[in-house]
Amino acid sequence: GENVEQHPSTLSVQEGDSAVIKCTYSDSASNYFPWYKQELGKRPQLIIDIRSNVGEKKDQRIAVTLNKTAKHFSLHITETQPEDSAVYFCAAIEPGKSTFGDGTTLTVKP
Amino acid sequence: GAGVSQSPSNKVTEKGKDVELRCDPISGHTALYWYRQSLGQGLEFLIYFQGNSAPDKSGLPSDRFSAERTGGSVSTLTIQRTQQEDSAVYLCASSLGTSEREQYFGPGTRLTVT
User: Does residue B98 carry a pLDDT above 70?
Assistant: First the structure.
């Protein structure tokens, strides 16, 4: 089955710096790679996603890159703000199955 | 419009009792997912429905867990003879259907087994 590894598990940055979170997956059947943000006590919410036929996608301060050959994808947040502090999850989705990473706790210090 | 809803929001039960968790997906969403999230952990995939059909039940942790979906809408996750290790937040998500679609999550049901 699919295995998703996410690193780092915790990340602390200064406000205004960039943050990068990386994930690897194992199953080439995975074709959709979303990133979710989960604030304490809240439900996960999609922040950006990428499909397997695309290498990079950007939405304002957030970007995701995908390397299908190497089976890894990354989340990049630029100009971080304190409100970016949360747990971020990557996921690898294939028809009928979703596999999430263990999460990265991002802390943005003002 | 209305998002994914789940009930109850909190459930405390005694070890050995059965519990039933309910998920109401977004209207028109044919795909429905159940996940389990233990404190401070990631999301553990349990089961996926396309319409009323769950083609793969291998993600369910044990035979005490079962799930069904009727009318292509509401789904229930049943845990029989609950154990303390079943304590977690159970999240439901729905999407428009194919695997390449955003999953919208419900608020979850926090299950505590005493």
Answer: no
